[in-house]
TrEMBL record:
Similarity annotation: Belongs to the pectinacetylesterase family.
One cellular component term from this protein's GO annotations in UniProt: plant-type cell wall
Pfam families, alphabetized: PAE
Signal peptide: 1-25
Role summary: Hydrolyzes acetyl esters in homogalacturonan regions of pectin. In type I primary cell wall, galacturonic acid residues of pectin can be acetylated at the O-2 and O-3 positions. Decreasing the degree of acetylation of pectin gels in vitro alters their physical properties.
Keyword match Hydrolase: yes
One GO MF term: pectin acetylesterase activity
Record's protein name: Pectin acetylesterase
Record bears the keyword Signal: yes
Length: 412
């Protein structure tokens, strides 16, 4: 089933309400929202490229126009992972495990098609890849247990979608950016060089990870909680053979789910957009639920302004560990860029408000959208790290909000 995009016309008063403060006048009162239908790749099932429930993979596509006709933005949806049979069975019932539960979506943020709101990528061919495999597109297990009907085929989905996009015209791209939020941001790291290899040698091709630089750090009780979680994902999905060999030849596959061990050896330019106090990482790496059974961190995990002095100190230590791990990637290639702010946030490219205008975090007098665009076109070597919390007044929110369905993990 071929998808298409259309504009959903909004009443004038509602168009105004949907704009961030300070942007009124940039768009007319009849501003419209780009609503994009689903493209389902029925033919991909022949190669076993299917979602957790066996349904075909799918994506949303909006064609480029004007000067952007030869440029491609492929954005990978986020939404966490599943690390065992029970977890994956639960996941396969919704859109994060089945294309049958997917539908039309509205493109915003980095996918927005208004030049005022998305100055560098608004008229590109834009794709949002549905995430229905639970492994950041790395899984590949042939056998399907008839008792569960679970299919671990994420890597095949990635290949099938890319093949379809290449046939749509991406094979002739002059510019291309692989981006993603959260688990999708991890996908853009793990598949960055593979994506680059698909495109013309003379094309400008880069990758962007938004909220996807997950670090291997101990929790507040001293346990390597997230390391065990990532190892379970890799084992469940049979991901080892689809992780970058530059990492798996040096260490165990589970470790190669962490960007800090993969990104320094990526050959394609990479931009890292992340909060040093990433709200999902604080909740699941520093303070996973099993490490706080008495609920001492409950309020702090939800709202950084409610953290006490000792808890803030713990977060500052986490920030230092994050920056230390990031340092290997920063030093690996001068073409890499980064925007590391001190917000309590997770993913900052998908909402127009946090991407471009009044609610966008600012570093070096530059919004997120401007930083990514300037870096992509080699107009500015953007490398900015924020001062420690609470110095940044441009942070738009202090409360945890799951924007992509990524909830707290549930390792026993």
């Amino acid at each position: 089933m071929a998808g298409f995009s259309r504009r959903a016309q909004l009443p004038p008063f509602l168009a105004l309400l949907l704009l961030p403060l300070g942007t009124v006048g940039l768009l007319s009162l009849t501003a419209s929202v780009l609503e994009v239908d689903l493209t389902v790749l029925q033919s991909a099932t022949k190669r076993g490229a299917v979602c957790l429930d066996g349904s075909p993979p799918a994506y949303h596509f909006s064609g480029g126009f004007g000067s952007g006709e030869g440029s491609w933005l492929v954005h990978i949806e986020g939404g966490g992972w599943c690390h065992n049979v029970t977890n994956c069975l639960s996941r396969m019932k919704g859109k994060l495990g089945s294309s049958r539960a997917m539908g039309a979506v509205r493109f915003s943020g980095i996918l927005n098609d208004h030049g005022e709101l998305n100055p560098y990528f608004y008229n590109w061919n834009k794709v949002k890849v549905g995430y229905c495999d639970g492994s950041s597109f790395t899984g590949d297990v042939d056998r399907v247990d008839p008792a569960t009907n679970l299919h671990y085929r994420g890597a095949r989905i990635f290949d099938a979608v890319m093949e379809d996009l290449l046939a749509k015209g991406m094979k002739n791209a002059t510019n291309a950016l692989l981006s993603g939020c959260s688990a999708g941001g991890l996908t853009s790291v793990l598949h960055c060089d593979r994506f680059r290899a698909l495109l013309p040698a003379d094309a400008r091709v880069k990758c962007l990870t938004d909220g996807g630089y997950f670090v291997n750090a101990k929790d507040i009780s001293g346990i390597e909680y997230v390391r065990a979680y990532f190892n379970s994902i890799v084992e469940t999905h049979g991901s080892a053979k689809n992780l970058p060999p530059s990492c798996t030849l040096r260490m165990s596959p589970g470790m190669c789910f962490f960007p800090q061990y993969v990104a320094p050896r990526i050959l394609t330019p990479l931009f890292i957009l992340n909060a040093a106090y990433d709200s999902w990482q604080i909740r699941n790496i520093l303070v996973p639920l099993p490490s706080d059974r008495e609920g001492t961190w409950k309020d702090c995990r939800a709202d950084i302004t409610k953290c006490n002095t000792k808890q803030i100190e713990g977060m500052q230590v986490f920030r230092q560990e994050f920056l230390k791990d990031l340092g290997r990637t920063i030093a690996s290639d001068p073409s890499n860029g980064f925007f590391i702010n001190s917000c309590f946030a997770h993913c900052q490219t998908e909402l127009t408000a946090t991407w471009k205008f009044s609610n966008s975090p600012v570093l070096g007098n530059t919004t997120v959208a401007e930083a990514v665009g300037l870096w992509f076109y080699d107009l500015r070597d953007f490398k900015e790290i924020d001062c420690p919390y609470p110095c940044d007044s441009s942070c738009y929110n202090n409360k945890y909000e799951s924007q992509d369905g990524l909830e707290d993990n549930d390792i026993p």
